[in-house]
Amino acid sequence: MNTLKVEMKFSEDVAKAKETGGPIVALESTIITHGMPYPQNVETARLVEDTVRAAGATPATIAVIGGCLHIGLDDNELTELALRDDVAKLSRADIAACMARKGTGATTVAATMIAAHYAGIAVFATGGIGGVHRGAESSFDISADLQELAQTPVNVVCAGAKAILDLPKTFEVLETLGVPVIAYGQDELPAFWSRQSGLPAPLRFDTADEIAAAFVMRRNFGVPGGHLIANPIPQKAEIPAETVAPWIETALAEAAEKGISAKAVTPFLLQRLFELSEGASLAANISLVLNNARLASEIAIALSRLPEDAVATI
Ligand code: PSU
Ligand code: MN
Protein backbone atom coordinates (compact mmCIF):
# COMPACT_ATOMS: atom_id res chain seq x y z
CA MET A 1 0.00 0.00 0.00
CA ASN A 2 2.95 2.23 -0.73
CA THR A 3 0.79 4.60 -2.74
CA LEU A 4 -1.25 5.50 0.32
CA LYS A 5 1.70 6.81 2.28
CA VAL A 6 1.81 10.57 2.53
CA GLU A 7 4.16 11.69 -0.20
CA MET A 8 6.07 14.72 1.10
CA LYS A 9 8.76 16.67 -0.69
CA PHE A 10 10.99 19.26 0.93
CA SER A 11 12.59 21.90 -1.24
CA GLU A 12 16.38 21.84 -1.17
CA ASP A 13 16.60 24.85 1.14
CA VAL A 14 14.03 23.51 3.56
CA ALA A 15 15.70 20.08 3.66
CA LYS A 16 18.99 21.79 4.49
CA ALA A 17 17.43 23.92 7.24
CA LYS A 18 15.80 20.84 8.73
CA GLU A 19 19.09 18.98 8.80
CA THR A 20 20.88 21.78 10.62
CA GLY A 21 17.98 22.74 12.90
CA GLY A 22 17.78 26.17 11.25
CA PRO A 23 14.69 28.39 11.62
CA ILE A 24 11.91 27.72 9.07
CA VAL A 25 8.76 29.75 8.39
CA ALA A 26 5.82 28.00 6.73
CA LEU A 27 3.76 30.02 4.23
CA GLU A 28 0.31 29.24 2.88
CA SER A 29 -0.70 29.04 -0.77
CA THR A 30 -4.43 29.89 -0.71
CA ILE A 31 -3.48 33.54 -0.41
CA ILE A 32 -1.74 33.06 -3.80
CA THR A 33 -4.50 31.14 -5.58
CA HIS A 34 -7.63 32.57 -3.98
CA GLY A 35 -6.54 35.68 -2.08
CA MET A 36 -4.83 37.88 -4.66
CA PRO A 37 -5.09 38.44 -8.41
CA TYR A 38 -2.32 37.53 -10.87
CA PRO A 39 0.43 38.79 -11.17
CA GLN A 40 0.50 40.43 -7.73
CA ASN A 41 -0.07 37.01 -6.17
CA VAL A 42 3.16 35.48 -7.45
CA GLU A 43 5.12 38.71 -6.96
CA THR A 44 3.96 38.82 -3.34
CA ALA A 45 4.75 35.13 -2.80
CA ARG A 46 8.32 35.78 -3.97
CA LEU A 47 8.65 38.93 -1.87
CA VAL A 48 7.42 37.09 1.22
CA GLU A 49 10.01 34.35 0.66
CA ASP A 50 12.76 36.97 0.16
CA THR A 51 11.68 38.74 3.34
CA VAL A 52 11.95 35.51 5.36
CA ARG A 53 15.41 34.85 3.90
CA ALA A 54 16.58 38.40 4.59
CA ALA A 55 15.43 37.99 8.20
CA GLY A 56 17.62 34.89 8.57
CA ALA A 57 15.11 32.05 8.22
CA THR A 58 14.10 29.64 5.46
CA PRO A 59 10.70 30.01 3.78
CA ALA A 60 8.55 26.92 3.16
CA THR A 61 5.54 27.67 0.98
CA ILE A 62 3.16 24.73 1.26
CA ALA A 63 0.84 23.22 -1.39
CA VAL A 64 -0.35 19.86 -2.71
CA ILE A 65 0.80 19.26 -6.28
CA GLY A 66 -0.21 16.06 -8.07
CA GLY A 67 -0.97 14.47 -4.70
CA CYS A 68 2.45 15.29 -3.24
CA LEU A 69 2.67 17.52 -0.17
CA HIS A 70 5.27 20.14 -1.03
CA ILE A 71 7.08 21.86 1.83
CA GLY A 72 8.86 24.63 -0.03
CA LEU A 73 8.18 25.40 -3.69
CA ASP A 74 10.56 26.31 -6.49
CA ASP A 75 9.83 29.30 -8.71
CA ASN A 76 8.23 27.20 -11.48
CA GLU A 77 5.86 25.55 -9.03
CA LEU A 78 4.99 28.89 -7.47
CA THR A 79 4.31 30.50 -10.85
CA GLU A 80 2.19 27.61 -12.07
CA LEU A 81 0.04 27.69 -8.95
CA ALA A 82 -0.41 31.46 -9.31
CA LEU A 83 -1.45 31.18 -12.97
CA ARG A 84 -3.87 28.25 -12.75
CA ASP A 85 -7.52 28.87 -11.99
CA ASP A 86 -8.47 25.25 -11.27
CA VAL A 87 -6.54 24.81 -8.03
CA ALA A 88 -8.62 23.53 -5.08
CA LYS A 89 -8.77 25.47 -1.80
CA LEU A 90 -7.83 22.89 0.81
CA SER A 91 -8.70 22.85 4.47
CA ARG A 92 -8.69 20.13 7.17
CA ALA A 93 -11.71 18.47 5.57
CA ASP A 94 -10.30 17.85 2.13
CA ILE A 95 -6.48 17.93 2.13
CA ALA A 96 -6.11 14.15 2.58
CA ALA A 97 -8.72 13.45 -0.12
CA CYS A 98 -6.80 15.70 -2.50
CA MET A 99 -3.57 13.82 -1.80
CA ALA A 100 -5.26 10.42 -2.26
CA ARG A 101 -6.67 11.50 -5.63
CA LYS A 102 -3.33 12.94 -6.75
CA GLY A 103 -4.92 16.34 -7.03
CA THR A 104 -3.49 19.83 -6.78
CA GLY A 105 -4.60 22.27 -4.13
CA ALA A 106 -3.59 25.35 -2.21
CA THR A 107 -3.55 25.20 1.56
CA THR A 108 -5.60 27.54 3.75
CA VAL A 109 -4.45 28.52 7.22
CA ALA A 110 -5.96 25.32 8.66
CA ALA A 111 -4.38 23.00 6.10
CA THR A 112 -1.03 24.82 6.23
CA MET A 113 -0.95 24.37 10.01
CA ILE A 114 -1.59 20.63 9.64
CA ALA A 115 1.09 20.29 6.96
CA ALA A 116 3.62 22.45 8.83
CA HIS A 117 3.19 20.41 11.99
CA TYR A 118 3.51 17.16 10.01
CA ALA A 119 6.77 18.51 8.57
CA GLY A 120 8.06 19.61 12.00
CA ILE A 121 7.67 23.37 11.44
CA ALA A 122 6.29 25.44 14.32
CA VAL A 123 5.96 28.93 12.82
CA PHE A 124 3.74 30.11 10.00
CA ALA A 125 3.10 33.55 8.48
CA THR A 126 -0.09 34.54 6.69
CA GLY A 127 -2.19 37.65 6.03
CA GLY A 128 -5.38 37.21 7.98
CA ILE A 129 -6.99 34.09 9.38
CA GLY A 130 -10.53 33.03 8.57
CA GLY A 131 -13.13 33.41 11.30
CA VAL A 132 -16.80 33.89 12.08
CA HIS A 133 -18.56 35.44 9.10
CA ARG A 134 -21.10 38.20 9.62
CA GLY A 135 -24.55 36.61 9.71
CA ALA A 136 -23.05 33.36 11.03
CA GLU A 137 -26.04 33.09 13.38
CA SER A 138 -28.03 31.97 10.34
CA SER A 139 -25.34 30.79 7.85
CA PHE A 140 -23.20 28.94 10.46
CA ASP A 141 -20.18 30.00 8.36
CA ILE A 142 -17.24 29.74 10.74
CA SER A 143 -13.80 29.09 9.26
CA ALA A 144 -12.08 25.81 10.06
CA ASP A 145 -9.02 27.95 10.84
CA LEU A 146 -10.37 28.56 14.35
CA GLN A 147 -10.72 24.87 15.27
CA GLU A 148 -7.28 24.24 13.86
CA LEU A 149 -5.71 26.83 16.12
CA ALA A 150 -7.27 24.97 19.03
CA GLN A 151 -5.60 21.67 18.21
CA THR A 152 -2.43 22.05 16.14
CA PRO A 153 0.74 23.39 17.80
CA VAL A 154 1.87 26.08 15.36
CA ASN A 155 2.51 29.80 15.87
CA VAL A 156 0.35 31.59 13.32
CA VAL A 157 1.39 35.18 12.64
CA CYS A 158 -1.39 37.23 11.04
CA ALA A 159 -2.60 40.85 11.01
CA GLY A 160 -5.78 39.88 12.84
CA ALA A 161 -8.84 38.25 11.35
CA LYS A 162 -9.93 39.77 8.04
CA ALA A 163 -12.22 42.74 8.72
CA ILE A 164 -14.84 41.32 6.34
CA LEU A 165 -15.65 38.99 9.27
CA ASP A 166 -17.52 39.52 12.51
CA LEU A 167 -14.47 40.33 14.63
CA PRO A 168 -16.06 40.28 18.12
CA LYS A 169 -17.61 36.85 17.43
CA THR A 170 -14.35 35.55 15.94
CA PHE A 171 -12.43 36.44 19.10
CA GLU A 172 -15.21 35.07 21.34
CA VAL A 173 -14.91 31.72 19.56
CA LEU A 174 -11.12 31.76 19.88
CA GLU A 175 -11.50 32.37 23.60
CA THR A 176 -13.97 29.49 23.90
CA LEU A 177 -11.56 27.23 22.04
CA GLY A 178 -8.72 28.18 24.39
CA VAL A 179 -6.51 29.75 21.75
CA PRO A 180 -3.94 32.25 23.07
CA VAL A 181 -4.55 35.42 21.07
CA ILE A 182 -1.54 37.71 21.31
CA ALA A 183 -1.40 41.28 20.07
CA TYR A 184 2.14 42.22 19.15
CA GLY A 185 3.31 45.52 20.57
CA GLN A 186 -0.09 47.09 21.35
CA ASP A 187 -3.03 46.63 23.71
CA GLU A 188 -5.73 46.42 21.06
CA LEU A 189 -6.28 43.68 18.51
CA PRO A 190 -5.51 44.81 14.97
CA ALA A 191 -8.13 44.46 12.20
CA PHE A 192 -6.16 43.38 9.13
CA TRP A 193 -6.22 46.53 6.93
CA SER A 194 -6.38 48.74 10.05
CA ARG A 195 -4.24 48.82 13.18
CA GLN A 196 -7.16 49.18 15.57
CA SER A 197 -10.29 47.07 16.00
CA GLY A 198 -11.72 48.59 19.19
CA LEU A 199 -11.29 45.17 20.82
CA PRO A 200 -8.85 44.71 23.71
CA ALA A 201 -6.25 42.00 23.15
CA PRO A 202 -6.43 39.06 25.59
CA LEU A 203 -2.61 38.93 25.65
CA ARG A 204 0.09 41.37 24.64
CA PHE A 205 3.72 40.55 23.93
CA ASP A 206 6.44 42.91 22.72
CA THR A 207 9.20 40.49 21.73
CA ALA A 208 9.61 37.32 19.69
CA ASP A 209 11.49 35.72 22.58
CA GLU A 210 8.47 36.05 24.88
CA ILE A 211 6.20 34.53 22.24
CA ALA A 212 8.57 31.59 21.71
CA ALA A 213 8.83 31.00 25.47
CA ALA A 214 5.05 31.03 25.95
CA PHE A 215 4.63 28.56 23.08
CA VAL A 216 7.14 26.11 24.49
CA MET A 217 5.76 26.48 28.02
CA ARG A 218 2.29 25.60 26.73
CA ARG A 219 3.63 22.49 25.04
CA ASN A 220 5.71 21.45 28.02
CA PHE A 221 2.56 21.80 30.13
CA GLY A 222 0.82 19.38 27.76
CA VAL A 223 -1.80 21.82 26.47
CA PRO A 224 -2.48 21.13 22.79
CA GLY A 225 -3.04 23.77 20.16
CA GLY A 226 -1.42 26.77 18.58
CA HIS A 227 -0.80 30.44 19.18
CA LEU A 228 -2.36 33.26 17.24
CA ILE A 229 -0.13 36.30 16.97
CA ALA A 230 -1.89 39.40 15.69
CA ASN A 231 0.68 41.80 14.27
CA PRO A 232 -0.67 45.25 13.35
CA ILE A 233 -0.22 46.40 9.75
CA PRO A 234 2.59 49.01 9.43
CA GLN A 235 1.29 52.53 10.07
CA LYS A 236 2.14 53.90 6.65
CA ALA A 237 0.26 51.09 4.90
CA GLU A 238 -2.91 50.98 6.98
CA ILE A 239 -6.36 51.93 5.71
CA PRO A 240 -8.53 53.46 8.45
CA ALA A 241 -11.48 51.26 9.47
CA GLU A 242 -13.95 54.04 8.45
CA THR A 243 -12.58 53.94 4.91
CA VAL A 244 -12.80 50.16 4.59
CA ALA A 245 -16.25 49.83 6.18
CA PRO A 246 -18.39 50.99 3.20
CA TRP A 247 -16.43 48.77 0.78
CA ILE A 248 -17.08 45.80 3.06
CA GLU A 249 -20.81 46.65 3.27
CA THR A 250 -21.08 46.81 -0.53
CA ALA A 251 -19.14 43.56 -1.05
CA LEU A 252 -21.22 41.74 1.58
CA ALA A 253 -24.49 42.93 0.04
CA GLU A 254 -23.36 41.71 -3.39
CA ALA A 255 -22.31 38.33 -1.99
CA ALA A 256 -25.75 37.90 -0.40
CA GLU A 257 -27.53 38.95 -3.59
CA LYS A 258 -25.49 36.50 -5.69
CA GLY A 259 -25.96 33.65 -3.16
CA ILE A 260 -22.19 33.21 -2.70
CA SER A 261 -21.59 30.61 0.01
CA ALA A 262 -19.11 28.26 1.69
CA LYS A 263 -15.53 28.34 0.36
CA ALA A 264 -16.33 30.96 -2.25
CA VAL A 265 -17.24 33.68 0.27
CA THR A 266 -13.78 34.85 1.34
CA PRO A 267 -12.24 34.89 -2.18
CA PHE A 268 -15.30 36.77 -3.51
CA LEU A 269 -15.17 39.42 -0.79
CA LEU A 270 -11.40 39.94 -1.14
CA GLN A 271 -11.70 40.32 -4.91
CA ARG A 272 -14.57 42.81 -4.62
CA LEU A 273 -12.68 44.81 -2.02
CA PHE A 274 -9.72 44.98 -4.38
CA GLU A 275 -11.98 46.40 -7.09
CA LEU A 276 -13.97 48.76 -4.86
CA SER A 277 -10.82 50.16 -3.27
CA GLU A 278 -9.11 50.50 -6.67
CA GLY A 279 -6.26 48.31 -5.54
CA ALA A 280 -5.72 49.94 -2.12
CA SER A 281 -6.87 46.85 -0.19
CA LEU A 282 -4.36 44.70 -2.07
CA ALA A 283 -1.46 47.09 -1.47
CA ALA A 284 -2.26 47.01 2.25
CA ASN A 285 -2.62 43.22 2.18
CA ILE A 286 0.83 42.84 0.61
CA SER A 287 2.42 45.15 3.16
CA LEU A 288 0.89 43.33 6.13
CA VAL A 289 1.93 39.90 4.84
CA LEU A 290 5.54 41.07 4.51
CA ASN A 291 5.39 42.52 8.00
CA ASN A 292 4.10 39.18 9.31
CA ALA A 293 6.86 37.29 7.50
CA ARG A 294 9.42 39.41 9.37
CA LEU A 295 7.90 38.75 12.79
CA ALA A 296 7.41 35.04 12.04
CA SER A 297 11.09 34.79 11.13
CA GLU A 298 12.06 36.39 14.44
CA ILE A 299 9.86 33.89 16.31
CA ALA A 300 11.34 30.95 14.38
CA ILE A 301 14.84 32.20 15.20
CA ALA A 302 13.91 32.66 18.88
CA LEU A 303 12.55 29.09 18.99
CA SER A 304 15.65 27.66 17.31
CA ARG A 305 17.86 29.39 19.91
CA LEU A 306 16.11 27.95 22.94
CA PRO A 307 18.29 25.46 24.82
CA GLU A 308 17.72 21.79 23.96
CA ASP A 309 16.20 20.91 27.33
CA ALA A 310 13.62 23.71 27.05
CA VAL A 311 12.21 22.16 23.91
CA ALA A 312 12.80 18.52 24.79
CA THR A 313 9.14 17.63 24.84
CA ILE A 314 8.24 19.13 21.45
N1 PSU B 1 -5.11 35.84 4.33
C1 PSU B 1 -5.11 36.69 3.28
N2 PSU B 1 -5.76 36.28 2.15
C2 PSU B 1 -6.40 35.04 2.07
C3 PSU B 1 -6.40 34.17 3.18
C4 PSU B 1 -5.73 34.63 4.30
O1 PSU B 1 -4.54 37.78 3.35
O2 PSU B 1 -6.94 34.71 1.02
C5 PSU B 1 -7.07 32.81 3.11
C6 PSU B 1 -6.43 31.87 4.13
O3 PSU B 1 -5.99 30.72 3.44
C7 PSU B 1 -7.56 31.51 5.09
C8 PSU B 1 -8.74 31.58 4.18
O4 PSU B 1 -7.38 30.24 5.68
O5 PSU B 1 -8.46 32.79 3.45
C9 PSU B 1 -10.04 31.61 4.95
O6 PSU B 1 -11.03 31.06 4.16
P1 PSU B 1 -12.46 30.64 4.79
O7 PSU B 1 -13.02 31.94 5.29
O8 PSU B 1 -13.24 30.06 3.62
O9 PSU B 1 -12.19 29.64 5.87
MN1 MN C 1 -16.36 29.38 5.49
Q: Strands, helices and their partners?
A:
Blueprint: E1 8-10, H1 12-20, E2 24-27, H2 30-33, H3 40-54, E3 58-65, E4 68-71, H4 75-83, E5 88-90, H5 95-100, E6 105-107, H6 109-118, E7 123-125, H7 136-139, H8 144-151, E8 155-158, H9 167-176, E9 181-184, E10 203-205, H10 208-220, E11 227-230, H11 241-258, H12 265-276, H13 280-305
Parallel strand pairs: 1-4, 2-3, 2-7, 5-6, 7-8, 8-11, 9-10, 9-11
Antiparallel strand pairs: 3-4, 3-6
Helix pairs in contact: 3-4, 3-13, 6-8, 10-13, 11-12
Bound molecules: pseudouridine-5'-monophosphate and manganese (II) ion (MN).
Pseudouridine-5'-monophosphate binds at residues 28, 30-31, 34-35, 108-109, 126-128, 130, 143-145, 263, 266, 270, 285.
Describe this structure in words.
The protein has 314 residues and is α/β, with parallel strands linked by helices. The chain has a single domain, classed as Indigoidine synthase fold (3-Layer(aba) Sandwich). The chain has helices at 12-20, 30-33, 40-54, 75-83, 95-100, 109-118, 136-139, 144-151, 167-176, 208-220, 241-258, 265-276, 280-305; strands at 8-10, 24-27, 58-65, 68-71, 88-90, 105-107, 123-125, 155-158, 181-184, 203-205, 227-230. Strands 1, 2, 3, 4, 5, 6, 7, 8, 9, 10 and 11 form an eleven-stranded mixed β-sheet that branches. A hairpin with a 2-residue loop joins β3 and β4. The longest helix has 26 residues, at 280-305. The two termini are 30 Å apart. Bound molecules: pseudouridine-5'-monophosphate and manganese (II) ion. Manganese (II) ion binds at residues 141, 143, 262, 265.
